[in-house]
Design brief:
Helix content: 40-55%
Largest sheet: 8 strands, parallel
Distance between the termini: 15 Å
Oligomer: single chain
Order of helices and strands: HHEHEEHEHEHHEHEHEHHEHEHHEE
Radius of gyration: 23 Å
Shape: globular
Length: 458
Amino acid sequence: MYDPIGGFKRMIDQFMVYLDTAYRIENPTMAAARHALLSAPGELALDPIFEAVPRYVQWSHGIEELAADSEGLLKDFSKAQRRAFAELVLCGLFDSVADDSELGKKGSYKPYLHQMDMLRRGVADGLPGIVTSGTGSGKTESFLLPLLAQISREATSWPSPLQPIDDDWLDPRGRFKYHRRNEHPDRPKAMRAIVLYPLNALVEDQMVRLRKAVDSPEARAVMDQYFAGNRIFFGRYTGRSPVTGYLEHPRLADTPYWDKRSKRATGELRKELRRYREIQAKIAADATLPDDLRYLFPSTDGGELISRWDMQATPPDILVTNQSILNAMLVREIDAPIIDQTRDWILQEPSARFYLILDELHLVRGSAGAEMASLLRILIERLGLSHPDHAHKLRVLSSSASLPMEGADSAFSVQYLKSMFGNAGTAGSRDLDRAWRDSVVTGTVPRQHLCPRFEVVN
């Protein structure tokens, strides 16, 4: 960040716009009073604290060069698959600028070396990747790059949808309709990845990143061109996801009680979806609002699955959740289809690959860490990925702000990774100590960094 003070002010301004959009007050006097109150020092945010952080070593090439590099990191990809991936990444995950190259655009900056190392590991079997580096080093991109590469590789062969996605979630009688009902039946509906976070606040931040990366107008255009109009579907599966309960109860369906309950739940969902539509319409209609504001809210006409009913019936390609919900998913009957459909896809499709991604690994310790390790083993077993014939289909990626690999602490870090993941994602390696030691990808800092960047810590 080259303008930390201006960046801090822009964050405050963007949050104020968010409040005015999501929680609009029609009375101008009251709206102005709220704005004045929140603008007072110390009300909305404390004074910023600036921390100087080093610039990490960058890769020698740009993301756009992956499209033509048939002998590089994506050598096993076809030209169409490499190009689809490169163009998709430059639609939101990485900023881009127009140029006169074959792609018509290039990255605004070169990726970090550790991001490309994670890409190399993440598109291969038996090479788990744990990226550990400081604040602002692009750890999220480090695990999203290989995930989007693998999905792009698969998506270029998906059959075209029977009809384009629409924004019609209810039929004329007010009954719920699945968002993915118009997809081709041969387009597998299963999780390609589960992204786990220790805190709900981190889940919300990830959703903003995903909306920008795979559901922006530019990303949709890339998918229309290379994925035959298919979308990469993603969803937030937390306590905030509407609505609870079955759409059609396996034992109570067609009873007066269930009809009444179903109508009430559908009404709640209709209200939620209408709210998101109205917010997106207001943002689109007001040219003075920041472009990125749209990604703070779901869009009801794209790749995001908003309702639990959708995700239970048609699992998203990328499911973002937390530890407590994963625990519930593994025991609740209502969530069984998410696991079962994903397991069927993994066992029946030779080219299937499933990504287990844990972000903020350093926060998962103690009793919570022991619980997470147990849940991961159960999940892997339920998905059939513990079977020797399919274990190679599991790819483990993670990020951590602190995982020392030098000196006496190295042995403790390796033991922690072994305790958390066991042999998951190592393709049956006989030397787990070496496998997990080699899995750690550390951001490299030049010995001399004359122009440090600044990050806002607040």
